[in-house]
What does this fold into?
Amino acid sequence: MFKNDRGRFILISSLIALTSAGHYLTPPSELLWHGIFQRLYYLPVVLGAISFGWRGGVLTALVCGLAYIPHIHIDWAHMHHYAMEQYAEILMFFAVGGVTGLLSDLEKRRREQLQRTAEELGRVYSELQSTFEQVRRADRLSAIGQLAAGLAHEIRNPLASIDGAAEVIEAGASGGVRDETVRIIRKECARLNSLLSSLLDFSRPRPPELRCVDVRQVIESVIELVRHSAGKNVRFEVSTQDSLPALNCDREQLAQVLMNLTLNASQAMPEGGTVRISAERGRGGIVIRVADEGTGIRTEQLEKIFDPFFTTKSSGTGLGLAVVHQIVTHHGGTVAASQNQDRGMTFTVRLPIGPEVQA
It folds into this structure.
């Protein structure tokens, strides 16, 4: 800062000296040049005001006036009227220097205030970033804790069944009891294997392999598979738009999404009912709806149904809807659940026709 002020001081002094030298060395008969030199005094005055505020402007005007007065007294004393105009010009030096300096001071204070505000905003932003990172870290730890708790809960029951079956075999069970015990062990091992497979699908999802897919064909193939595992009283209705465009997505993952949703819908109707699957073109993509006539989900549970290990069924891993949400999100889409007006639930999947697949 000192070097800048010193450089400006030298520049102002040089301008005053050069202008004064021009006055003193120019013959009095050259009135045009004297008028030019007289106006050139405003340059150091304005520069002094801008650089050093109103004090600098007034001081520079004073120096210019002191340098100019001897010239007026020597060369223009015999022209009283013209000499008075020159003295009035010196007063204008003070006016210009003072006003320009005041404006410069106001601008400096405003600039300093803006700089302080920017620094304060930067500090607040840094604190917010730090707080946000802490919240994200806490959220991740909470999610890991919930995942571990859910996994422990799901594993504990099959292990208890296997342990009880092992005790029965150890006690010397034979015949039908032994066969039933072995069946229980195999069933619970299959349950654990299914749980771990679902967990691996959730924790390490396969990147989508995008292809042009006929949505109606995928829906029909999924229903053909689900129909065999659904109850006899469960019916399926499909309605798709005639001009439905092809969808750029992963066919297997789309089938997995529809499989989970239709299975959940059929399992939600133990007494039977109709599962309605529809597909139509929506804004910017395709909308697929799966509606059932089951028992539904309570309002307070709606915001949790896509969380890992959250389930309203007595049996199940609670990972099906979490995997659905994950696949749809990776395709750049959304999935939502809503209660029907009469009974049951409707799951709505919105997928862009040409999605930008997320990493």
